[in-house]
Design goal:
Elements lengths: L6 H13 L5 E3 L2 E6 L3 H18 L4 E5 L2 E6 L9 H19 L1
Antiparallel strand pairs: 1-2, 2-4, 3-4
Helix pairs in contact: 2-3
């Protein structure tokens, strides 16, 4: 079921949703997460995220830095976060759990 939100309620809804995403930090109009995973897990996570991101027509930034993977979601050009970007972050969490539990 879809519910329409006015702009004030929409902002509160996104803020509430972000509080449920543990490990994600907000940097302006982007959210970021650093994951301590190995190279094999990084590759599996990247593939899973690509499928979801393509379906949502979004492009997260995923980079590998020594023993961790950094993910950024959002435009970063002054545009506010959207419901789709918060949804993508939640799906990234699902993918992270899947690749670290297997």
């Amino acid at each position: 079921m879809r519910v329409l939100f006015n702009s004030r309620a929409k902002h509160d809804y996104l803020a509430d949703a972000l509080t449920l995403l543990s490990g994600w930090t907000r940097e302006g109009e982007q959210i970021r997460r650093t994951l301590a995973i190995d190279d094999t897990q990084h590759a599996a996570l990247t593939e899973r995220v690509k499928v979801v991101a393509d379906a949502l027509h979004l492009r997260p930034e995923i980079s590998r830095q020594s023993d961790s993977t950094q993910i950024r979601v959002g435009h970063g050009n002054g545009e506010p976060l959207t419901e789709g970007e918060v949804l993508l972050a939640a799906r990234i969490e699902d993918a992270y759990r899947a690749v670290t539990e297997s």
